[in-house]
């Protein structure tokens, strides 16, 4: 295959794969939520048949958010922050070793986003520390 034909196919494949991955993500999330809803419905129907008290509805099933408590969000931010900082540092040194000094600065962009995630996680944990204390005083 000629190089100019390959050059035309690269953006086409990138766009199609990007849209396909997005669609797969939306479909898998919908499938997961529908399975959770179906499982919860069956559990409630069995409880009604047996005359037992109905189990409470999970809050993430009703509200639609799958994150759960803020600690999960803070923990996810720490994990992604550390990953992005390390990826940014590795990219910086890898591009520097290749010899592109000016381009190596672009490797620090993921590192800056990672630092922002770590700051966000610290703020979330501070917010969570303050909330239980205010509830205990009441």
Q: Order of helices and strands, N to C?
A: HHHH
From the spread of the alpha carbons, the general shape counts as flat
Approximate helicity band = over 70%
* Beta-strand share of residues: under 5%
Structural class: mainly alpha
Rg from alpha-carbon coordinates: 24 Å
Helix segment tally: 4
Largest sheet: number of strands, sense, barrel closure: none
Characteristic terms for this protein:
single chain, 138 residues, mainly alpha, 2 domains, 81% helix, 0% strand, disordered C terminus
Describe the protein's architecture and organization.
There is one protein chain. This protein is mostly helical. The protein folds into two domains: 1-66; 67-138. The protein contains four helices and no strands. It has helices at residues 3-50, 59-63, 70-98, 108-137. It starts with a helix and ends with a helix.
Could you give the topology of this structure?
Layout: H1 3-50, H2 59-63, H3 70-98, H4 108-137
Helix pairs in contact: 3-4
